[in-house]
Amino acid sequence: MDERRAAMLREMGIRLLPAWALPAQEQAAIDAEAAEAPALRAEVPAVVEAPIAVPPARSLGDRPAGVPTLDWPELEAAVAGCRACGLCESRRNTVFGVGPRQADWMVIGEAPGENEDLRGEPFVGQAGKLLDNMLRALGLDRGRNVYIANVLKCRPPGNRNPEPQEVAQCEPFLRRQVELVKPRMILAMGRFAVQSLLQTQEPVGRLRGRVHDYHGVPLVVTYHPAYLLRNLPDKAKAWADLCLAATTLDAG
């Protein structure tokens, strides 16, 4: 599709699927379809996933008290020194967050992986590159206008799934980050992030396609970039989620 036609479609309010959202072999077919019918919309079917339980947090243990009142330096120091669960024994670095500390957009993922644990930064490696491409398609950049964090601040050994109690222990840190960032839109990526933030056992596929609320902040659900790297057709669904979030923010 030539740039002139793409610009005309953008002026009509139509968000085209960016290159990252399409397996390469499907690009030509989508462009041909767009030439005949300019409205490109991704379907949002339900995806069945196994739920997780989200229990209340146990006693604070070695997690610092007073998290709801901490400022940025205090909060970062509290995360770095947290020993409230066993993940502190195997981590190399805590992964606090990255981006401007007041931003309209906040992206929340699940837990650090090996690369994140080594660098102390969320969403690096191949999943991070895909996330950066996703954000750029909306005019966003992790260093400029979006803050990125994870539900867990420490890597689960072997990149295993987070345990419910680990999620519960980290929740006060994340909630305080949201309060300090003051985002106008939260993009929750992946099952554990979604179910922790929304306090639900519903699978991602049933929560997509509508706007939720997290303590007064609009929240849109989508797939984790690592999942999208393994399930290429669902990239188009993720683009639909990003478009929903952008449209909701624009309307606000």
From TrEMBL:
Q: Name one Pfam family in it.
A: UDG
Protein EC: 3.2.2.27
UniProt keyword terms in alphabetical order: 4Fe-4S, DNA damage, DNA repair, Hydrolase, Iron, Iron-sulfur, Metal-binding
Question: Mind telling me which Gene3D superfamilies this protein's record contains?
Answer: Uracil-DNA glycosylase-like domain
Q: What biological-process GO terms show up in the record?
A: DNA repair
Give this protein's Gene Ontology molecular function annotations: 4 iron, 4 sulfur cluster binding; metal ion binding; uracil DNA N-glycosylase activity
Q: Which reaction does it catalyse?
A: Hydrolyzes single-stranded DNA or mismatched double-stranded DNA and polynucleotides, releasing free uracil
Task: List the InterPro entries hit by this protein, alphabetically.
Answer: UDG_Type-4/5, Ura-DNA_glyco_family4, Uracil-DNA_glycosylase-like, Uracil-DNA_glycosylase-like_sf
Q: Where is the Uracil-DNA glycosylase-like domain?
A: 96-243
Q: Does the keyword Hydrolase apply?
A: yes
Which protein family is named in the record?
Answer: Belongs to the uracil-DNA glycosylase (UDG) superfamily. Type 4 (UDGa) family.
| Cross-referenced NCBIfam families | UDG_fam4
What is the protein name for this chain? Answer: Type-4 uracil-DNA glycosylase
Q: Which organism is it from?
A: Ramlibacter humi
